[in-house]
Amino acid sequence: MRKSSSYDEMAVRKQFDRICKLALKGEKIDYRRHIAYRQKHEVMLSELSEKDMGRLFTVDDYGVENQWFQVLGYDIEVKDMLIAEALQALSEKKRDVVLLSYFMDMSDAEIGRALNLVRSTVYEHRKRSLELMKNIMEEHTDEKKR
Fold first, then answer.
1. Which of 30, 50, 65, 137 has the most CB atoms at less than 10 Å from its CB?
2. Which tens digit of pLDDT belongs to each residue from 39-64?
3. Res 41: pLDDT
4. Residue 76 and residue 104 in contact, taking contact as beta carbons nearer than 8 Å
């Protein structure tokens, strides 16, 4: 006896249903494995530290627009044009004190020995130089606003 066509149709549907369920189960496993991999190997940009963010790009710096000063055999590069302009307005001794102090990280005593000055004189030169530079930079900023 031959089985009815409705029985054959029902068997095919059950087989198809089983195959679909197995395929979906496999997709679910693959998807979860993929998500776990991404969580392990990927990081959101907002979660990166400044150091890590800095490694994501580079900036070409050719030094064409930078100003160079020479003090005691050191070549000191000043990248900000406004600061460079203010430094040029200072006397040589005051400029040397500022450059050695802030760009070469030298103490007042070290600067004094290098320039044959008393430590208190180095302090006064730096203090007055910073005041002059501040005034020059403020004037330049005010001129740009106008």
1. 137
2. 888 888 888 888 888 888 887 767 66
3. 87
4. yes
Asked whether 136 and 125 are in contact (CB, 8 A), the reply is no
Ranges of residues in the chain whose predicted pLDDT is under 50 = 1
Start-to-end Cα distance in the chain: 104
Helix ranges, the chain (H): 5-41, 50-54, 81-89, 92-98, 108-115, 119-145
Domain CATH code at residue 81: 1.10.10.10
Give Cα separations from 45 to 49, 50, 51, 54, 58 (angstroms): 9, 10, 12, 12, 17
**Long-range CB pairs of 18-25, under 8 A, 24+ apart, other chains included:** none
Query: Are 71 and 135 found together in one domain?
Result: yes
Range of the domain at 100: 67-145
